[in-house]
Amino acid sequence: MDFEQFYQDKYPAGVPREVDLDKYQSMVDVFEQAVKKYADRPAFSAVGATLTYRDLDTQSRNFAAWLQNKTDLKPGDRIAVQMPNLPQYPVVVFGAMRAGLIVVNTNPLYTQREMEHQFNDSGAKALVVLANMADNAEKVVPQTGIEHVIITEIADMNSPIKRTLMNAAVKHLKKMVPAFNIPGAHKLPAVLGAGAREKFTPVETKKDDIAVLQYTGGTTGVAKGAMLTHSNLVANLLQVRPMMEDTVEEGKEVVIAPLPLYHIYSFTLNCGIMLEAGAHNVLIPNPRDIPGFVGYPEFLVDKMPKM
């Protein structure tokens, strides 16, 4: 698309081309308005689970409450998130943001050396990691400043019975979860359950507060954390929306998300632009499996990438 021509056609000479950067004060503001406006709409789906915007609001609130009441983490502290495209990803990310924490997106396929560098470089004090690669975390965490580890399993956002059966199949039948032992680690379902019983205190988030430390690929050296403020992310969202207003119907779109949410493109699109538009984001955990990709919506657990 020729963006300059697009704007010339859409906004003739003399028509302002600015966007209202004061529409939202932060990504938390974007999130809270979206979950209220589209409460009963599906927000994120994967591995047989669908979270509505109301579910996303409730579960992220529970995660934030747990962080506030059951840990010593404070606004501005860093929390690393290491998992593929699963419904618990937005729960954890927005829960962390609602508690005032800075999200450190981490590639699930990182080596131990890469993990250690990123965790230390970012100053991460907490880690949410998929059980499939927790054996690497077991070896790396003692070499870092991480004090709190939360383990999630593939089917954690499914109903309790389905969750138990699917997670057991992944671990014992598919043999996709290497043995690990991380003393003091918490399981995400227990964290969310405990958080539901705690008080959540909203945190004032300013535009210039850092929202995410987004690490580069490290192709010219070690990966470097780009500091993205809430204002950065909101500005990106608001600048893209005018180009979509003629084609995207708010609260009605279904968006396939094969690109990993821990990369900035999909993070901005699916956890920002499409969330603000009330879209249903269908997450693809393993886009390398083309038959499974095409055969969605029931993305089977054996289609998960081998970690």
UniProtKB/TrEMBL annotation:
State the source organism's domain of life.
Answer: Bacteria
Q: Which residues form the AMP-dependent synthetase/ligase domain?
A: 31-289
Mention any Pfam family matching this sequence. Answer: AMP-binding
Give yes or no: UniProt keyword Membrane.
no
Annotated PROSITE patterns: AMP_BINDING (PS00455)
Gene3D superfamilies attached to this UniProt entry: N-terminal domain of ligase-like
Q: Which UniProt keywords are present, listed alphabetically?
A: Ligase
Stored InterPro entries: AMP-binding_CS (IPR020845), AMP-dep_synth/lig_dom (IPR000873), ANL_N_sf (IPR042099), ATP-dep_AMP-bd_enzyme (IPR050237)
Q: What Gene Ontology molecular-function terms does this entry list?
A: ligase activity
What this protein is called in its record is AMP-binding enzyme
